[in-house]
Amino acid sequence: MAGIQLKVIHRKASLKQPKNMCGNTNALRVTIAVWLLQVIATCAQNSVCQNLAASPTLTMFVDQLPIPPAIHLTNATLSVGAFKINQKLHRDLPPTTLYAYGQTISDAMYPAATLEARRNQPAHVYYTNNIAGPHILPIDRTIHWANPLHGGVPIVTHLHGAEVQSYSDGHPDAWFTQNGDHGPTYTTQNYTYPNAQNPTMLWYHDHVVGITRLNVLAGLAGLYMLRSDQDQCLTDLFPYGQFEIPIVLKDLQFWSNGSINFPNIGDSPATHPQWCPEYFGDTIVVNGKAWPTLTVHPRCYRFRFLNGANARFFNISMSNPRLSFTKIATDGGYLPPGQSQVVKSLMIAPAERVDVIIDFKNLTPGSVVYFNNSAPAPFPGGGFNPPQTNSVMQIKVAAWPSGTTNFGNSSTDVMRCVNQASSGYFPSRDFNGSLHRYLTLQEFDDANGSPIVSLLGNKTWNDPVTELPRVNSTEVWEMINLTPDAHPIHTHLIHFQVLNQQPFDTTGFSAGTCNITIPFGQSGTCFTGPPIAPAIYQTGLKDTAIVWPGNVTRYGMTFRSASGGPFVFDPTTEPGYVWHCHILDHEDNDMMRPYKVLPAV
Ligand SMILES: *[C@@H]1O[C@H](CO)[C@@H](O)[C@H](O)[C@H]1NC(C)=O
Ligand SMILES: *[C@@H]1O[C@H](CO)[C@@H](O)[C@H](O)[C@H]1NC(C)=O
Ligand SMILES: *[C@@H]1O[C@H](CO)[C@@H](O)[C@H](O)[C@H]1NC(C)=O
Ligand SMILES: *[C@@H]1O[C@H](CO)[C@@H](O)[C@H](O)[C@H]1NC(C)=O
Ligand SMILES: *[C@@H]1O[C@H](CO)[C@@H](O)[C@H](O)[C@H]1NC(C)=O
Ligand SMILES: *[C@@H]1O[C@H](CO)[C@@H](O)[C@H](O)[C@H]1NC(C)=O
Ligand SMILES: *[C@@H]1O[C@H](CO)[C@@H](O)[C@H](O)[C@H]1NC(C)=O
Ligand SMILES: *[C@@H]1O[C@H](CO)[C@@H](O)[C@H](O)[C@H]1NC(C)=O
Ligand SMILES: *[C@@H]1O[C@H](CO)[C@@H](O)[C@H](O)[C@H]1NC(C)=O
Ligand SMILES: *[C@@H]1O[C@H](CO)[C@@H](O)[C@H](O)[C@H]1NC(C)=O
Ligand SMILES: *[C@@H]1O[C@H](CO)[C@@H](O)[C@H](O)[C@H]1NC(C)=O
Ligand SMILES: [Cu+2]
Predict the structure, then answer these.
(1) I need a labelling partner for 234 at 20 to 30 A (CA). Which of 11, 94, 225, 370 fits?
(2) Domains of the chain listed by start with CATH number
(3) Model pLDDT for residues 3-49, shown as the tens digit of each residue
């Protein structure tokens, strides 16, 4: 960044309105002449941030919603490889080249097979890399990235939401390539998952430093279901793939030949030739099909949502106002007994999960329901919402086949199972007297007002570790958002709870004319209002939560297992953990920090 004038921005949207680099001379304000010439010369094949050629128009609701197959983890080590594949993502779209996990190249797919784990039965997964370079998406070599000596496509897999020892956590520098190059914190490809935590839905995805956005967008992602005896009742009522429906949301943009259209000219190309602040596609893909359709019968279904997008937030609602979501679990497990939430919309930021029951019992066969999306992109400012991104998928209600005798259980039966599943996981937590850490979220611009980097705590990924909590301790991390965007901030190893959020004066804070440690109402405070209880979508045990602009969001963190007991492994060993923004374009540049857990005193 030497020589670039850094300017902290406060109120300007990080995403400028789409600018037409190819047609609108007013937008051609790239200051470096070389870049200007390259842009003009290569306009036909290149695409610029937020100005991608529209995807081919695809007929909605023609493909069945795919259900990823389930693989049950056993005591034997499961081998999971990363492969380059071609996959049809819509009836009318030529196959798309993807990277995907599989046991072999022939069963590799996006999303990958769902791994089924049993609580307290440790599993071993041996990851292999079968992908030769060059990368199918453009790498930006000016941001900090793996940069393997002999080329290729580095991978490393993180099991998101898992309580694991850090050598199995998919540390961003623990990457490896097909031909044996590896990053500085690499020690093994044989990962151990203790599965000792609360039952919940996790997901496994790539986490390589500097190219996570490319590897995940290319398809390296799959679900991981951790089940226990305690939620067996629910598992029995809602068998996976039949009445338990995983929903992996994502947005992509396509060329007419089916390839992913990813910008290869950045927003501030003189600084970063490719990097863009956020990737948004105009096509909504669910479980690997664009705008799919699902047929249900009139009964209760369990839907397990994951936002697997790089940057797009989803706010999901149903087109039939009589239907509601009964939310039973979040990232870290079930809501406490009796605290399920009946809601009309689901706000889901990248990497967040929600587990809901929907009762279709009172719908007449032949009815059609849509899952719609209303979240502005970027969130909450908006600017990239082509109308088709408001449609997600279709659900058709079909009559029971003749001869059916089991019409599903009553909602009373369902809630009895929910309460049974959730009992016992909620150790009381008290954050009074905890250590508070004050951590800024900041975005920096070039002289033209284009974003070039985002930081946490004003530190880069490479700066020495500053967050050093102790085993068993509680801490409050105050996320001070100075940017115009909401950021889904994710912590590895532990689940936290959002304690509250509080509006503050971002300008005064940055100028140093007010103090963020002085309570609202007292002289010198930065706060402009009292703390506000977490929104309904911020409640429950979380490993990723929405940190709104203009607010300080407080994470109550306990450095022991979310199930209440101690970790069943040593969390203090190398290479340690990370916390970061889960907008993958931000995480890659440079909104990610290492953190390490110290022994209890
Ligand atoms: C698998 O390991 C568990 C302990 O984690 C043990 O109880 C069980 O017997 C093992 N099963 C087999 C088939 O070896
Ligand atoms: C992976 O590690 C586990 C535990 O250390 C071991 O039992 C297993 O054999 C290893 N698997 C491979 C393929 O190395
Ligand atoms: C698909 O089309 C794009 C845009 O013309 C091109 O850059 C890309 O190389 C094509 N991909 C394949 C696999 O032909
Ligand atoms: C989500 O959408 C619903 C309408 O469907 C709206 O009432 C709600 O405010 C939205 N949530 C957020 C956080 O914007
Ligand atoms: C929801 O999606 C359906 C199907 O595409 C569409 O007809 C409807 O207008 C959408 N509703 C909203 C509120 O966006
Ligand atoms: C589900 O319904 C069946 C049939 O009425 C009943 O036998 C069973 O106990 C119910 N399951 C639960 C978990 O309530
Ligand atoms: C901890 O703080 C909360 C809210 O500030 C308060 O309601 C509660 O009484 C405190 N608990 C103890 C043990 O001091
Ligand atoms: C951020 O860190 C730089 C040094 O790296 C320092 O010059 C600057 O004042 C810091 N800004 C804030 C807001 O702390
Ligand atoms: C953490 O706390 C629990 C209970 O409070 C205790 O049993 C355990 O020994 C502690 N662990 C360490 C490493 O201090
Ligand atoms: C804010 O106030 C605290 C004490 O409440 C003090 O330690 C700190 O130095 C102050 N910070 C600034 C920037 O004035
Ligand atoms: C704080 O966040 C809320 C949403 O939770 C938002 O409505 C409000 O505008 C934010 N406050 C400021 C000062 O930006
Ligand atoms: Cu971010």
Answers:
(1) 370
(2) 21-222 (2.60.40.420), 244-422 (2.60.40.420), 435-595 (2.60.40.420)
(3) 333 333 333 334 443 333 333 333 333 333 334 334 333 333 456 78
Q: Is 551 in the pocket of ligand 11 (CB under 6 A)?
A: yes
The ligand that comes nearest to the alpha carbon of residue 513 is: 10
- Distance, first Cα to last Cα, the chain: 40
The pTM assigned to this predicted structure is 0.93
Give 197's DSSP letter.
Answer: S
Dist CA 330 CA 127 (whole Å) = 27
Q: Nearest ligand, CA of residue 118?
A: 1
Contact call for residues 260 and 253 (beta carbons, < 8 A): yes
- Residue 464 CA to residue 171 CA, distance in Å, equals 16
**DSSP assignment of 316-379, as one string?**
EEESSTT--EEEEEETTEEPPTT--EEESEEEE-TT-EEEEEEE-TTSPTT-EEEEEE---SST
Q: How far apart are CA 13 and CA 17, in angstroms?
A: 9
> Ligand 4: which residue has its CA nearest to atom 13?
347
Calpha distance 352→330 (Å, rounded): 8
